[in-house]
Write a structure and sequence with these properties.
The complex is a heterodimer of chains A (about 230) and B (about 240).
Chain A (H helix, E strand, L loop, with lengths): L1 H19 L1 H20 L9 H29 L3 H7 L4 H31 L7 H26 L5 H28 L4 H30 L2
Helix pairs in contact in A: 1-5, 2-3, 2-5, 3-4, 3-5, 3-6, 3-7, 5-6, 5-8, 6-7, 6-8, 7-8
Chain B lengths: L5 E10 L2 E11 L4 E5 L6 H8 L7 E6 L2 E2 L6 H5 L2 E4 L11 H11 L5 H11 L15 H13 L5 E5 L7 H16 L3 E5 L3 H7 L2 E6 L2 E7 L5 H15 L1
Parallel strand pairs in B: 3-8, 3-9, 6-7, 7-8
Antiparallel strand pairs in B: 1-2, 1-4, 4-5, 9-10
Chain lengths: ~230, ~240
């Protein structure tokens, strides 16, 4: 039962996004802007640094803030016409709704990153293909961890009047560990180090994601209560 | 008469320090439609939201065939038996009407969702507009689609908050017929309305809610529109 409700919620969110492209467009253009601004702002080659030194920071600033835009929208669409109540009234396990939202959010975040990473290659003149498998793993694991926490906090903040303000205030401090591990792992990966050098950081991020996924599953029912 | 299908006992609800419902009790039987009248702020919407399990009472209980609506362990089972039409449509405006209904049908695990949706589109007379985005629907069409959403899982208890609002006279008459039909099929129907005439034409029993209490309750057979209007005015005058 939970399995089918999970996929139904995820498919509904993706269908809605495909129809409007609201979250994707805003997250993509924000990410693009950040990349372009950084490419002009930092002349890191002149001080002897390469993209492998600063790329982790640039990529994670982009991912973190663009994710907040799509996380916020995933529950704001439920607030319109009180669809949130419609979801609450469904007889499925509430955790299936959380997991469906989490899955859809992770897909949004990764879809934006899948477009932004090649653009970084062009802007910063770095050959990402060389490190793509490792980098993809770091991005997928950390983005999923960030989305697990973000989905739960977006659900908490959506009932408040200033949810747009509350979500970053709640999420950014709590997500600091996964962002730091993501930056460190990305830097090591871009520097061409093998998995042994940053595997523990990916494992830590996976644990973080797992903990907050379990927290979301356990707490979502209470979070959704009026 | 058979045992009550819905039994509400001493229901109390507070919003902050304000007491919205004050020990409200009522019963509803299968095959019965109960119209709930009352001024704005009387507690009609709060009562319906409580019975839909969207809110929890401060005191009292409501049982559906002996099972408390507020028991967390039974909530999935009870929610499967309740259909709720609220002020807001609970519809995703950017999705089509069909996508909305199919979504809710799947969430309620309705067998053969496509067929059920086709039945409902026929019932609410929205055939031919199924694939239009809901945001392109008029207020009345959205109200009819919201009704279809509330009925998608064929609930035993149908709760409707001002279902006639936003409907043109023909659609309101059609809705009235539909509610009578639901009651005849053995569903228990509880709806709120400000329209005494429309409510009286559908209900088997009427009640007036005032200040969070049931101030009046009577069978349809004992009332005319005039007598109901006089009673309503007298309740309003007495309590005010």
């Amino acid at each position: 039962m939970g399995h089918s409700a999970l996929l139904t919620v995820c498919a509904k969110d993706l269908r809605q996004e495909l129809r409007t492209r609201e979250s994707f467009t805003s997250a993509f253009f924000f990410s693009l802007l950040v990349q372009v601004v950084f490419s002009f702002a930092f002349d890191f080659q002149s001080i002897g640094l390469g993209f492998e030194d600063v790329g982790g920071g640039i990529l994670w600033i982009t991912l973190t803030f663009s994710s907040i835009l799509s996380l916020q929208n995933s529950f704001l669409i439920e607030r319109e016409k009180n669809c949130l109540a419609g979801l609450v009234l469904c007889p499925c396990d509430p955790s299936a709704v959380y997991l469906g939202k989490f899955l859809a959010n992770s897909i949004f975040v990764l879809a934006v990153q899948a477009l932004i990473l090649p653009i970084s290659t062009l802007l910063f003149g770095y050959d990402l293909l060389r490190v793509l498998p490792g980098l993809a793993m770091v991005v997928v694991v950390n983005a999923a961890g960030f989305s697990a926490l973000g989905t739960l906090f977006a659900a908490i903040s959506v009932r408040t009047r200033r949810s747009e303000l509350l979500l970053p205030l709640l999420l950014l401090p709590a997500a600091t560990p996964v962002v730091i591990w993501g930056v460190k792992a990305t830097r090591l990966c871009l520097a061409g180090r093998d998995l042994g050098a940053y595997g523990y950081l990916v494992a830590l991020s996976a644990c973080f994601g797992a903990i907050f996924t379990v927290a979301g599953v356990l707490l979502f029912d209470y979070v959704m209560e009026d | 008469m058979s045992a009550a299908f819905l039994q509400v006992r001493d229901l109390d609800f507070r919003f902050g320090s304000r007491r919205i419902l004050r020990g409200l009790s009522l019963t509803l039987h299968r095959g019965e439609a109960l119209a709930l009248f009352g001024a704005n702020g009387a507690g009609k919407t709060t009562l319906l939201r409580l019975l839909a399990t969207l809110l929890r009472p401060a005191a009292g209980d409501a049982e559906l065939e002996g099972v408390s609506l507020f028991r967390r362990s039974e909530r999935s089972r009870t929610r499967r038996r309740i259909g709720f039409l609220s002020h807001q449509s609970m519809l995703y405006e950017r999705l089509s009407a069909r996508q909305n209904l199919l979504f809710y049908a799947r969430m309620y695990e309705v067998p053969d969702p496509a067929r059920r949706c086709a039945e409902l589109f026929r019932l609410v007379e929205l055939e031919g507009r199924e694939d239009d985005p809901v945001e392109e629907y008029s207020r009345g069409m959205q109200q009819r689609l919201a009704l279809a959403r509330a009925l998608v899982h064929d609930p035993d208890l149908v709760l409707l908050d001002e279902p006639f609002s936003g409907l043109d006279p023909r659609a309101a008459r059609r809705l009235g017929e539909l509610l009578v039909d639901l009651a005849e099929k053995g569903k228990a129907v509880l709806f709120s309305s400000h329209d005494l005439e429309a409510g009286l034409s559908v209900a088997r029993r009427v009640a007036i809610l005032w200040g969070g209490r049931l101030a009046f309750e009577a069978g349809r057979d004992t009332l005319t529109l005039d007598s109901l209007a006089r009673t309503y005015a007298s309740v309003a005058g007495r309590i005010a």
